[in-house]
Amino acid sequence: MSRAAAAGAGGGPAVEIAKCAAVPTAAAAFADVAFDRLPELYDRVFSQLFAALVGRGIEPAGAPYGLYTRVGETVDVQIGVPLGAALVEPFALDEEVEIRGFELPAGTVASTVHVGGYDGLPAAWQALVAELRAAGREAVQPCWEVYLDQPQPGGDPRGLRTELVTLVR
User: Fold this and answer.
1) Which residues contact 103 (CB under 8 A, 6 or more apart)?
2) pTM
3) For the chain, which residues make up each domain, given as ranges?
4) Residues 6 or more apart from 149 whose CB is under 8 A from it?
5) What CATH homologous superfamily does 16-150+157-168 map to?
6) Which InterPro entries match (predicted)?
7) In which residue ranges of the chain is pLDDT below 50?
C-alpha cells in the first residue's frame, strides 16, 4: 500500500483508506500482556523468528508487524511477519513461544506512517483515530503496526518509520 504525503483533512497525519486482501503470516500470540512487557516480547520474537523461518525454507514476504486483537489495560497481540503462503505446521521458537499461522485481516483499512521513536506511537494512534472521526469513519479492531525500519543499537530513533493500520467502518 502506498502512503499519501499530504496531511490529513483535519491537519493530522496523512491517512490512506484502501481495501486489502488477507495476508498469511507466521506469528506468536500473547494474551493479557502489560504494555511495559511489550518491548521484551517483540525483542524475544524478532531476535529468533527470521532465522527460524529461513531454517525451514520459509522466506518472509514483508516487514514484521504487531497485530492487536484487544487493547485495554492490557493487550492481546500477535508478533510476526507476513508470508507468501500459509504456514502449515506450527513450530516452537523457544520453550515458551510457539509460532503459528495467522492472517492480517481482509477489509477496508486506514493507514498512516509514524516517523519517530516507538514512544511516539500512542500519540500517533490517537491522531489517526481523531483523523478518522473527523472524516466520519470509525477505527475497529484489530489494528496493527508494521515496522518498516529495524532499530539499531545506539541508533537515532527519530527516523524510524512505523505504519499504523486499522480496520475501519
Assistant:
1) 22, 23, 24, 25
2) 0.89
3) 16-150+157-168
4) 159, 160, 161
5) Regulatory factor, effector binding domain (3.20.80.10)
6) AraC_E-bd, GyrI-like, Reg_factor_effector_dom_sf
7) 1-10
